[in-house]
């Protein structure tokens, strides 16, 4: 009886490919089960945050050498309260400078994939803007005088039918060279050269 049941079962499944336990259905050609890894992932340039790092450095100097500021502000004789106030001001400057610089740098994550560009803003609450590759019409570089001097600027992506950029990579390092890398990553090397011209 058991042999008959097996033969019936084998007859029903004859011609069907056998699948082992835990095996997945094969993916169609050209598709992958893994998500596409980002081509480029960028943050705000450190040199664009020079003012905040400078504030932190001055605060650290004040913490280590409070006597310099005491002699300059209060004269040769100063009480312990004046020293404590100057140290507190230095500590506040360090916390404010470092905290603000790190927040601005890591709160913005700019991503370029072969399919789209996106800008994610925020640490706890995220606001994400993106434009698909086939909708991008212009890629524009903007630099202020200070940005030109220090080598940072904005890259703006606009799509058809809009008068304003939908995605902006703000204060990234080396924006002109980065624009060429992005057009190459999105359109391929040859198409990227055509988009540049």
What does this structure look like?
This protein has helices at 2-12, 50-64, 66-73, 80-107, 145-150, 175-196; strands at residues 40-42, 108-112, 116-121, 127-132, 136-142, 152-159, 167-173. With 197 residues, the protein is of the alpha+beta class. The strands form 2 sheets. Strands 1-2-3-4 form a 4-stranded antiparallel β-sheet. The protein has a 3-stranded antiparallel β-sheet with strand order 5-6-7. Strand 6 (152-159) and strand 7 form a beta hairpin. Helix 3 crosses helix 4 (80-107). It starts with a helix and ends with a helix.
Give me the secondary-structure topology.
Elements: H1 2-12, E1 40-42, H2 50-64, H3 66-73, H4 80-107, E2 108-112, E3 116-121, E4 127-132, E5 136-142, H5 145-150, E6 152-159, E7 167-173, H6 175-196
Antiparallel strand pairs: 1-2, 2-3, 3-4, 5-6, 6-7
Strand content: 15-25%
Instruction: Name the helix and strand elements from N-terminus to C-terminus, one letter apiece.
Output: HEHHHEEEEHEEH
Distance between the termini: 78 Å
Q: What is the quaternary state of this protein?
A: single chain
Shape assignment: elongated
Structural class: alpha+beta
């Amino acid at each position: 009886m058991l042999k008959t049941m097996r033969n019936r079962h084998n007859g029903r499944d004859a011609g069907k490919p056998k699948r082992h336990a835990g095996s997945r259905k094969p993916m169609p050609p050209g598709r992958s089960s893994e998500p596409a890894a980002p081509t480029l992932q960028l943050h705000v340039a450190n040199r664009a945050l020079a003012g905040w790092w400078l504030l932190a450095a001055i605060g650290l100097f004040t913490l280590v050498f409070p006597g310099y500021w005491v002699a300059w502000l209060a004269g040769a004789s100063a009480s312990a309260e004046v020293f404590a106030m100057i140290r507190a001001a230095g500590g506040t400057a360090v916390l404010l400078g470092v905290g603000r610089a790190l927040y601005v740098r890591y709160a913005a994550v700019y991503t370029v994939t072969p399919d789209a560009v996106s800008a994610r803003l925020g640490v706890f609450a995220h606001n994400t803007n993106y434009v698909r590759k086939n909708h991008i019409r212009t890629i524009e570089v903007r630099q202020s005088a200070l940005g030109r001097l220090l080598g940072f600027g904005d890259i703006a992506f606009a799509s058809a039918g809009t008068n304003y950029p939908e995605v902006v990579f703000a204060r990234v390092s080396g924006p002109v060279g980065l624009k060429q890398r992005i057009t190459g990553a999105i359109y391929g090397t040859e198409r990227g050269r055509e988009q540049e011209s």
